[in-house]
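We treat protein structure as text, and this decision shapes the records that our systems exchange. Such a record has a labelled line for the sequence and another for the backbone structure tokens. The record that follows is passed on verbatim for readers who wish to inspect the format:
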Amino acid sequence: MIRHIVLWKLYEQANNNTKQENAQQAKQVLEALNGKIQGLIKLEVGIDLLHSEQSADIALYSEFASLDDLEHYQHHPEHVKIIPFMKSICAERRVIDFES
């Protein structure tokens, strides 16, 4: 099982929206990928509750059966079309992919 985790810190304002509004929109568009991309077993998005200095604003957790499935997800048109929006609201991004 391959686990793909992404953490984003968002701009305070972007696209005429607040950080919280953009976080909600990101959650919506990312979770809409469930069931649309072959090989994507599970994808969920969480929005930070504590808002501490160390916190990321949103986190994506997803699961794939193989590295090939993860690679397919990365280049799938449904995923690719979300990237410009995520880049427009994102001040910082961290990612980790691991096998378990």
